[in-house]
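During the first year of the project, the team set up a workflow for recording each protein of interest as an amino acid sequence followed immediately by a discrete structure-token representation. This format lets reviewers and collaborators read both layers of information side by side without switching files. As required by the reporting guidelines, we include two representative entries from the current panel. The first entry is reproduced here exactly as it appears in our internal archive.
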Amino acid sequence: MSQWMDICAVTDLQADSGVCALVEGKQVAIFYMPKDSAVYAIDNYDPFGKVHVLSRGLIGDIKGEPMVSSPLYKQHFSLKTGQCFEDETVKNKVYAIRIENNRVEISLEG
């Protein structure tokens, strides 16, 4: 069973962009796509640049898969699985996230 934590209001999110939240000491990049009624959470760490910057990346999709492009070296990470499109050996952690009563909730379990 997931332990859901309230982290912010929906109004704190930037539409079609990312924000970073510090959740239990972890930097989590949160992406909000209101047109798709979607919200995603992925570890903010860029394993190639070795810094926490993914929340500043550009979002879009590759063949229908929602993704974020790292602002440093431009690798693309799936927002659903964390898998790097350019290097199958690299995968970032993704987190369960939802919107309930205009609040954003996340679970770090899983």
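The second entry, processed by the same pipeline in the following quarter, appears below.
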Amino acid sequence: METKMTESKNDYRKALGAVIDARGRESSRQVSYRMQYQLIGAFTKRP
């Protein structure tokens, strides 16, 4: 019973870590995409 409890706690921590990691990657990708968009806009903007 005791080992099962710690095991499920580990799984929960692992899942939580994976979710946080995935959200972090997603937000960083969105930021880089936004920067790319600004860069393209700066290049195509007519003087």
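For the second entry, the following points were noted during internal review. The two ends are 71 Å apart (CA to CA). The first helix runs from residue 2 to 44. Both points are flagged for discussion at the upcoming steering committee meeting.
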